[in-house]
């Protein structure tokens, strides 16, 4: 997802808020190199709503394949819409090794190159359940978070709409509706379980929750324009069609899902 100016201007959250961390988060924080995420999470917990059942499209598929080795080739490059890898099934990661960490680090490099604040592995053509993000973007390096095999446990707080961009859709932005709050269970790059509450009533928490939901959608094969209301989709439709035509010309014979078309059943990507 793309960066936004107001996020860059935010001040870091103070360590005084550490006391409000849940025991799980406290353990995760003490062993985690990326402290900023947990600081924001604590802040997000202020005004956090009671949660409701997880909507079907946010439930991790039970039949997700598992990979014991994540295969990828450096240097990574962003995959643009409508590349079928953005719609393929993403595998659960069951090994936490140097290769996984190297992949996450290269994803962060690519994310910063394009001035992003979040990136999911299928966006670099690697169909596994991995995402990286830094709500402050490249202006605050070292504040990145890596989430492996994230699952949405609950959502709440109603919905709100804001402008989104996506690194796989160069030049296109439009409003998308998201849940305000989301409870997440995931693993870090070492395989440690982390529990996160993203959202709350302040801008930083809501922004972090939005970034997570955008990247999580990528792991579900859902793209941001899938969630747009007709009025939001209309202005970017010509841009989507242009990307489709460009891809079709460069990859004749490759089956793509065009805007407005019903999704084909997702298939496992070649390469794992
Ligand atoms: Zn995206």
List keywords for this structure.
binds zinc ion; Peptide Deformylase; single chain; globular; 7 helices; alpha+beta; six-stranded antiparallel β-sheet; 272 residues
Folded structure, characterized:
The protein has seven helices and eight strands, in the order H-H-H-E-E-E-H-E-E-E-E-E-H-H-H. Helices cover about 25% and strands about 20% of the residues. The chain is of the alpha+beta class and about 270 residues long. The radius of gyration is 18 Å and the shape is globular. Helix 3 (about 35-45) packs across helix 5. A hairpin with a 7-residue loop joins strand 6 (about 145-165) and strand 7. The chain has a single domain (about 5-250), classed as Peptide deformylase (Peptide Deformylase, Alpha-Beta Complex), CATH 3.90.45. Strands 1, 4, 5, 6, 7 and 8 form a six-stranded antiparallel β-sheet that branches. The structure holds zinc ion.
Summarize the structure in short:
The protein is 27% helix and 20% strand. The protein has 272 residues and is α+β, with helices and mostly antiparallel strands. Zinc ion (ZN) binds next to α5.
Radius of gyration (CA) equals: 18 Å
Structure ligands: zinc ion
- Report how far the terminal alpha carbons are from each other: 25 Å
Helix content: 25-40%
> Architecture, according to CATH?
Alpha-Beta Complex
Order of helices and strands: HHHEEEHEEEEEHHH
Give the biggest beta sheet: 6 strands, antiparallel
Number of strands: 8
Number of helices: 7
| Number of structurally distinct domains | 1
What would the average pLDDT be, to the nearest integer? 84
CATH domain class name? Alpha Beta
Function: Removes the formyl group from the N-terminal Met of newly synthesized proteins.
Enzyme class: hydrolase
Pfam families: Pep_deformylase
GO biological process, one term: translation
